[in-house]
Specification:
The chain is of the alpha+beta class. The chain has two domains: 144 residues, 3-Layer(aba) Sandwich (NADH Oxidase), CATH 3.40.109.10; 116 residues, putative nitroreductase (tm1586), domain 2 (NADH Oxidase), CATH 3.40.109. Helices cover 33% and strands 20% of the residues. The protein has eight helices and eleven strands. The strands form two sheets. Strands 1, 2, 3, 4, 5 and 6 form a six-stranded antiparallel sheet that branches. The chain has a five-stranded mixed sheet with strand order 7-8-9-11-10. Helix 2 runs antiparallel to helix 3. The radius of gyration is 18 Å and the shape is globular. It starts with a helix and ends with a strand. The structure holds flavin mononucleotide. Flavin mononucleotide binds next to strand 4 and helix 8.
């Protein structure tokens, strides 16, 4: 999975090909496995595979808050409670499914927005939201011009530096490269995030990772808080990193975690060695 995290990038242009029945079975298995795993805060997150009826119509380009997707044969989507823990759980569960798709050669991208889709109406539980639809397909041979432009713009700023995101005991002390958790944090740095804002901030203190959210002022209003979903993605990447070190982690809310100014405390991961 570490390699998958390192290789993954958003794919917005797909081959003009429908998903084969064999591949649909593979995706359905990812969906089922994703729903069977207990989410960290116990939210019943639902996942759903949906073929795109109008894959080649101009309308299908308009899904998502920004960016353009082309020739989308299908979507992975899901629903959750519109609460802090519901969105953390959603990010955590959905990111695993995304990585499983990438591992098997599918192209995909997280898209958040307000989805008006009749197939989704009966799918979400009462009171739950559908915060994301991720196109799933065979990566297009060529990136569209618009996609290249979006990537160029993103890559210009691309990822923030390790020391701007993570701290050892406090945020003025960077985590040293020799620290056993340096590489675990690197997996957070590579994570996808809405508008590539990279709002995760993490303190390593003893055997704990304390996660904080640095909110972007005037973040576009959405059906659900995408910034909190990003934090669920970060939690997943840390857990994958710990697994690679043969550690397990316990995700919890820690009342004793430091509360640095200007950051919103989200959750902690306690490492059981
Ligand atoms: C919660 C979430 C919502 C996103 N929403 C959109 C979107 O609406 N449109 C889009 O083109 N990309 C969207 N993205 C993808 C990000 O733009 C992308 O992950 C980020 O720019 C980093 O690029 P990378 O995924 O290639 O590493 C979203 C990502 C996340 C995690």
């Amino acid at each position: 999975m570490i390699q998958v995290i390192k290789q993954r990038h958003s794919v917005r242009t797909f081959e003009k090909k429908t998903i084969s029945l064999d591949d649909e079975k593979v995706i359905q298995k990812i969906v089922q496995d994703g729903m069977q795993e207990a989410a960290p805060f116990g939210t019943p997150v639902k996942l759903y595979f949906l073929r795109n009826k109008d894959a080649h119509s101009p309308e299908s380009k308009k899904v998502g808050m920004y960016g353009y997707v082309k020739h989308v044969p299908a979507y992975l989507t899901g629903s959750t409670e519109n609460t802090k823990t519901g969105l953390l759980d959603f990010g955590y569960v959905f990111e695993k499914a995304i990585l499983e798709l990438v591992k098997r050669g599918f192209g995909t991208v997280w898209l958040s927005g307000d989805f008006d889709n009749e197939d989704l109406e009966n799918f979400a539980r009462e009171g739950h939201v559908v915060p994301v639809m991720a196109p799933v397909g065979y990566p297009g041979y060529k990136q569209s011009l618009k996609e290249r432009f979006l990537r160029m713009k993103q890559e210009a700023s691309d990822r923030k530096k390790h020391e701007d995101l993570f701290g050892f005991n406090d945020f003025s002390t960077p985590v040293d490269k020799s620290h056993p958790y340096y590489e675990v944090l690197e997996l957070v740095r590579l994570a996808p995030s809405a508008l590539n804002k990279q709002p995760w901030r993490v303190l390593v203190k003893d055997d704990d990772f304390h996660l904080y959210l640095k909110r972007t002022e005037k973040f576009p209003e959405q059906v659900a808080d995408s910034e909190m979903i990003n934090m669920g993605i970060a939690m997943r990447h840390i857990m994958i990193g710990l697994e690679s070190l043969s550690h397990t982690g316990q995700i919890l809310m820690d009342d004793a975690a430091p509360r640095p100014e200007g950051l919103e405390y989200v959750a902690s991961i306690h490492v059981n060695s």
